[in-house]
Structures are given as C-alpha cells and as structure tokens.
Amino acid sequence: MNEKPTRRDVLKHAARGTALLGLGGLAWHLARGSDVEGAWQLDCQKCVNSRLGALGVDVCELCATTCVIGLSAVRAVNEYSKCGRCYICPAYFDVKSAIDAEGLPSQKLCPRDAIERKPIGEVDEDDPANNFYEYIIDEERCNGCGRCVMACKEPAGLTSIRLEVRHNLCLDCNRCSIAIVCPDEAYDRKPFGEQGVTG
Ligand code: SF4
Ligand code: SF4
Ligand code: SF4
Question: What is the pLDDT at residue 68?
C-alpha cells in the first residue's frame, strides 16, 4: 500500500537533511582550516628570488623542495603587463651557454622546460630580432624552483616573473612547511583579496 507522507514525516525528513548538510559543512571547514584567516601567500617583495637588489646570490629553491605536495603548490607567474617581450629573455635562455648558429644561447634556463617562447603580433620572418616574444609558463611542469624569477630581474630582466602559491593546489596546511624554512619570511597567512592571492 502506498501511503501519502504526512506533514510531520516531511518536516522530520527536512530536519535530518539539514543536520547532515551542517555536518558536511563542518567537516569541510575543519579539513580546510579556518577561511576567516585566509590563505598562505608569498610576498614577492620579500622573496630573495624576486627582491630587487638581491643580485649575485644563489637562487632559493625551497618553495620547490619543501612543499608537502610532490610538485609543490607554488608556480612561477609571468605578469605580461611588465614583461618586455624580449628577443633574448634571460629567464628563458641560459645566457651563459654557448651561442648557436642563429646567434642565440644554446641552452634554456628552466630545468623542467616549463617555459614556452613564441613570437607575437606582426611577425617579421626575415629578422627574428625584430619581433616581440611571449613567454608562457606551463603550470603542469613548473615546480616553483625560482630560477626564472631570479633571472628576470633588473638590469637583465624587468621583474615580470614572480612566484605565487596556487590556491587550487595548496592544501592550506595549518603550518605551511615552506613558511617554516623560508629564510626571508616571505610566507604569511592573509585574507583573500590581499596581495598575491589568486586561484
Ligand atoms: S622559500 Fe622564501 S625565499 Fe625561498 S623561494 Fe620560497 S618565498 Fe622565496
Ligand atoms: S620556476 Fe623553475 S620550473 Fe618554473 S618556469 Fe621558472 S625555472 Fe621553470
Ligand atoms: S600550505 Fe602546504 S600545500 Fe600549501 S604551499 Fe604550504 S606546504 Fe605547500
């Protein structure tokens, strides 16, 4: 027999659903940590790899090697509005490598081949040095090692590349293991909307 649910049955069902939703929300909140405190962010003004004036020092690769995620949650980002679209980008080419037949450095700087170079705009096929180039970072390959960031600094570069925590990858650890070791104290938990938060 197919009895119609009473109003009491409907209300009981609704109350149970609401309670389950509440528990689910609480579990998600506990798993992610407190959103009120924001997310881990990297201040590129402090990071040695992008800090102006930090020249002739070794690249710091701790963002790549200390994150609890295998490939790290940190990526290099090229801010195109600042990029000079150079013919010989010191972040793309290893400018210390031998010069090839085309007059370009023969080696790339990125150890993971994570930067693509392509001419943009009206392309002059006869004179490659007459073109502008876009340098695109492949987030599937980049591990935030910081080498390109260190190389794209004045006077050779224009500081258009920086490191950034990708919040779609970051586990929002209670204590970020990179923040613990960062020699420049460049990591801080800040609310979304403050400097450097994307993703
Ligand atoms: S650990 Fe600190 S100094 Fe080193 S690359 Fe990361 S943010 Fe920069
Ligand atoms: S941060 Fe390292 S892995 Fe990423 S693009 Fe730059 S050099 Fe390549
Ligand atoms: S909070 Fe965790 S996952 Fe995110 S950057 Fe730090 S160590 Fe990596």
Answer: 98
Atom of ligand 2 at shortest range from CA of 146: 1
Distance (angstroms) between ligand 2 centre and the Cα of 144 equals 5
Q: Are residues 15 and 75 in the same domain?
A: no
Q: Is 43 helix (H, G, I), strand (E, B) or coil?
A: coil
Write out pLDDT tens, residues 27-60: 333 444 445 578 999 999 999 999 998 888 999 9
Q: Which residue, by CA, sits nearest to atom 6 of ligand 2?
A: 148
> Is residue 198, in this structure, part of any structural domain at all?
no
* In a shared domain, residues 37 and 18: no
Residue recorded with tokens 């102006």:
52
| Closest among 47, 73, 50, 53 to 148, alpha carbons compared | 50
Q: Is residue 172 part of a domain?
A: yes
Range of the structural domain that residue 109 is part of: 33-190
- pLDDT digit string, tens, across residues 60-84: 999 999 999 999 999 999 999 999 8
Index of the ligand 3 atom closest to the CA of residue 179? 6
Virtual torsion, Cα 108, 144, 158, 184, nearest 10 deg? -130
CB-based burial label for 40 (10 Å; 0-12, 13-18, 19+): buried
Which stretches in the chain have pLDDT values below 70? 1-36, 193-199
Domain count, the chain: 2
> Are 61 and 19 members of one domain?
no
Residue 9 and residue 42 in one domain: no
